[in-house]
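Morning F.,

Quick status update on the modeling queue. The single chain you submitted on Monday has been processed. Sequence for confirmation:
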Amino acid sequence: MKKIIFFTILIFSAFVIKNLVSSIYTLWQKQSLVVQAQKELEKEKNENQRLKRDFIKANTNEFIEEQARNKLLLVKEGEQKVIIPKELIASQTAQNKITENEPNWRKWWNLFF
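Structure tokens below.
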């Protein structure tokens, strides 16, 4: 009778130990998920702060005026529009490319003579 009770307790103890080890192993694996989620949360908080700063900046009059000038080509009262032809811009950039390929001594020579 004592042997049966002993083996029953031994089998029950082995079963409990196996379940505890399994639970500890599962928690150990999920620890990396928690760390990864914390890193992602920190990244999202930083993104949220950046978006809040951008939102506050976008609500200022200076930003609205800058966007109206740059994207909508609007001007204030009393100002005049200046439209530069694309050909002039293209010729200026072509001239800059030519001078970039010249050696420095040649650029100085052309500047003074």
